[in-house]
Amino acid sequence: MSNLFIKTAVRSLFTTTSRNRTINQAKRLLEDYMGLADGLSREARVRAVEVPPMRGVDENMRRWSFSQVSG
Questions:
Q1: 3-state DSSP call for residue 59?
Q2: What is the pLDDT of residue 43?
Q3: What is the model's pTM?
Q4: How many CB atoms sit inside 10 A of residue 68's CB?
Q5: Which of 7, 8, 48, 69 has a beta carbon 3.0–4.6 Å from 65's, enabling a disulfide?
Q6: Where are the strands (E) in the chain, listed by range?
Q7: What is the largest CA-CA distance in the chain?
Q8: Nearest to 47, CA basis, from 63, 33, 34, 70
């Protein structure tokens, strides 16, 4: 019985740790993203830029502005 308890506790710890790590990483990325947005002028936010061709990126998905990406 204690073996089952330990397995459950360890799995829960791994799940929680992983989830918390992911949440914290997402929060840091959001802060970075918002800082980037704050540093751009309105003109820069709406100016579309074209990225080079890449595997898996359709031709019609290569030209976006910061505002279009951020929704």
A1: helix
A2: 94
A3: 0.52
A4: 11
A5: 48
A6: 49-50, 63-64
A7: 64
A8: 63
